[in-house]
From TrEMBL:
The keyword tRNA processing does not apply. SUPFAM superfamilies: 2Fe-2S ferredoxin-like (SSF54292), CO dehydrogenase ISP C-domain like (SSF47741). Residues 45-121 form the 2Fe-2S ferredoxin-type domain. Keywords: 2Fe-2S, Iron, Iron-sulfur, Metal-binding, Oxidoreductase. This is Aldehyde dehydrogenase iron-sulfur subunit. Signal peptide: none annotated. InterPro entries: 2Fe-2S-bd, 2Fe-2S-bd_dom_sf, 2Fe-2S_ferredoxin-like_sf, 2Fe-2S_ferredoxin-type, 2Fe2S_fd_BS, Aldehyde_Oxdr_Iron-Sulfur, Beta-grasp_dom_sf, TAT_signal. GO terms for cellular component: periplasmic space. PANTHER family: ALDEHYDE OXIDOREDUCTASE IRON-SULFUR-BINDING SUBUNIT PAOA, OXIDOREDUCTASE, IRON-SULPHUR BINDING SUBUNIT-RELATED-RELATED.
């Protein structure tokens, strides 16, 4: 007959065993909760949009950005993907009359909204005044940022005339003037890597003066 086993409970052994039991119970609890959880909803959504005046319907993954919905699903590639982080402005388009960075907005958020892209502004035969001004003032070089620049430029004039102040606006009680400083501040979210900023400023100023 084997000799009896001598067993002694030590504080360190007891604490280690308790910790292991707690961790094991935690994992079991999580697994149990997951197995009994309510199934997730649909991964796709059908979104109804009015794009450039035309009713469109698109079924997208719930994680799809408005930018990718326009480019990949509706084949409206005029809106450009630049940084994809809302820092360059190449993806700027209009939603219900307000400019947005479409790379930062999910398509499912815009069900029923009115979207305007560069394709809906003008055509080579009948250009928008801002497009004409960009051509006349050489407001682009490579052209990649130009759609977003034009979208923002048109909104800048509307925002100033609507009395919406910017960071550089001084007297908030007076009518806001369309100055170089105001235009530069409001266009600061649109990057032109070719450096055509002075020409872009000239184009916006020309349109503002002609439509005054």
């Amino acid at each position: 007959m084997p000799p009896p086993i001598e067993f002694q409970v030590r504080r360190r052994t007891l604490l280690a065993g308790s910790a292991a039991a707690a961790v094991s119970a935690g994992f079991t609890g999580k697994a149990g909760a997951q197995s009994g959880a309510t199934p997730a909803g649909s991964e796709t959504t059908t979104v109804s949009l009015t794009v450039n005046g035309e009713a469109r319907e698109v079924t997208v993954d719930n994680r799809t950005t408005l930018l990718d919905a326009l480019r990949e699903h509706l084949q409206l590639t005029g809106t450009k993907k630049g940084c994809d982080h809302g820092q360059c402005g190449a993806c700027t388009c209009s939603v219900n009359g307000n400019r947005v960075n479409s790379c930062l907005s999910l398509a499912v958020m815009h069900d029923g909204d009115e979207i305007e892209t560069i394709e809906g502004i003008g055509t080579p035969e009948a250009m928008d005044p801002m497009q004409t001004a960009f051509v006349e003032n050489d407001g682009f070089q490579c052209g990649y940022c130009t759609p977003g620049q034009i979208q923002s430029a048109r909104s800048v004039i509307e925002e100033i005339r609507a009395g919406i102040p910017s960071h550089v606006t001084g007297d908030l009680t007076a009518e806001i003037a369309i100055t170089d400083e105001e235009i530069r501040e409001r266009m600061s979210g649109n990057i032109c890597r070719c450096g055509a900023y002075s020409n872009i400023l000239a184009a916006i100023t020309q349109v503002a003066e002609e439509s005054a």
